[in-house]
What we know:
Chain A is an alpha+beta fold. Chain A has helices at 43-51, 93-103, 108-121, 137-149, 167-184, 196-202, 220-225, 230-235; strands at 4-13, 17-27, 32-36, 58-63, 66-67, 78-81, 155-159, 188-193, 205-210, 213-218, 242-246, 249-253, 258-260, 271-283, 286-293, 296-302, 315-320, 326-329, 334-335.
Amino acid sequence: MAxxxxxxxxxxxxxxxxxxxxxxxxxxxxxxxxxxxxxxCGKTTVLRLIxxxxxxxxGEVLIGGNPMTGLPPRARQVAMVxxxxxxxxxxxxxxxxxxxxxxAGVDKADRKRRAEAVARQLGIGxxxxxxxxxxxxxxxxxxxxxxxxxxxxxxxxxxxxxSNLDAKLRASARQDLKQLQEHLGAxxxxxxxxxxxxxxxxxxxxAVMERGKILQVGTPQEIYHHPANEFVATFLGxxxxxxxxxxxxxxxxxxxxxxxKGTVAPSIDDLGLDVYVRRVEHVRSERHVVGxxxxxxxxxxxxxxxxxxxxxxxxxxxxxxxxxxxxFALSGERIERGRE
Amino acid sequence: MSEPTAVxxxxxxxxxxxxxxxxxxxxxxxLLGPSVTYIVALIAVPFLIAITIALxxxxxxxxxxxxxGLQNFSAIVEDPIFxxxxxxxxxxxxxxxxxxxVLAMILSLILSANFRxxxxxxxxxxxxxxxxxxxxxxxxxxxxxxxxxPIDWVLRTxxxxxxxxxxxxxxxxxxxxxxxxxxxxxxxLAAVIIMAGLAAIPEEITEAAELxxxxxxxxxxxxxxxxxxxxxxxATLFGAILAFTDMTVVYVLxxxxxxxxxxxxxxxSFIRGIEGGDLAQSAAMAVFLFPVLLAAGIxxxxxxxxxxxx
Lengths: 340, 310
């Protein structure tokens, strides 16, 4: 239970790489913040700076209001799970989970009891005598979580903990993490991922990062529906937001807002578009309409409730409801609608 | 209809044009050849000759071969100097190896640390190993000189010593000197081997220990050393064999003296065979401990393999 504050944080690596470029961020007590960004945007470095595995070039990290500059990880009361899990290969599952308690000087009977309790909570209670190499990747991930949680850390850092799992397992592991979050309630959690679905599912708030900078911080809904700029608009959503260039600005709308004319109740500020349909893809129950407006590509995602026939090779009228339109300057920054 | 044949020859042609070194049946013997020749000529043949001679009565003066069975072995076992040398060899090796294991571990940790000028330090540390044993032993001979020892001089200046320590002239001190020089000589090699093992430990694992709140000692004892055990065992095995088989240090420093207090098997074998001329007994001594060394080597390698599987 602690706030984590990052002030004017910078990290330069040898060779002129700027991994974190003047970052400010406050994560409240018990909040679950997701750092989302493409690979190489510096999100892992931020996590390592908070954990104390790296020291910042300038700026500072505060945990619970106390500056952490120069302090090693063990003085920070943080726990971290990394992508590879980094389990101790020569220790059993129990040995792995107990290790942080040993280091903290918890007495023998107590640490065994606590380790077993955490293991049971994570559903690995029957694996305690196995070695990491005898476990599946999903089980390893749970051991890594158990090892991190056994100390009841005040800050819990997760660096892409699901990316080593296969697609099916990842979905169920995400559900488990979500459930774990509810258990942990009061623990501040910072979760790093490049996967927007994970970010949407797991974050109270999402911070979108690119090139060492935070572009936008907000709830999943805010980030998705009101992106602060072109990068956020196109990074989130699959397929991403459509952007059309108009005189001196860009107009953006989500693919699911682009619907055949007549399927939505018309209003005066609707945007009407004549879309030349190239092809229709069936994705699960949806239809993805890939088309062109003028010379610009657009994609429409039609839910199964929209049954209007779409014919590839023909130009058909589509509309976007006015409230679903977003405007961006050519530089990429968002233009507030009222100011136009 | 000429096309199919053209295609046929085209698909066959590249096979014939394969480079000489692409042919595995040729490449394997070619690459292995030099080392096999070397091992056979300089290790296998002399070893077999040593066994043959050990079972004969060959001396420098009378090189005619007469088979005498195990007579030489029973003769050397009766010899009190041989027994002294055997005990010394085993104890010196044991103490040297223990020292090497500890010192090399410390040294490898220092060398793996990141600091300014570590390349210079690494080079300096490796010097004892790169210097020929005979040369460095002579340097130590001077350092341990009974009258002019600089070590004595320093100790006298500090008021810790009156007169001379006479390192090589007193049985206990002479043994300690031999062990110290041996450890000094072997530690760098063992340290470099262990250092390679340390470098192979994933950084994530040591970082995990750091995040789990483990301090230097806990990380060392519970993570670094266990993960490095196979490499440490190999380094120690190397060190033990080097210490056991070396005669240079003893030969240069003490020649086995005073009164055989530092006599070891390789040196005694050399003195009997080359200086004393009794080739047969010398060879018997040389092969005497081969089975024991072999067994020890196999045992250590086995345990290493077990540890790796885990």
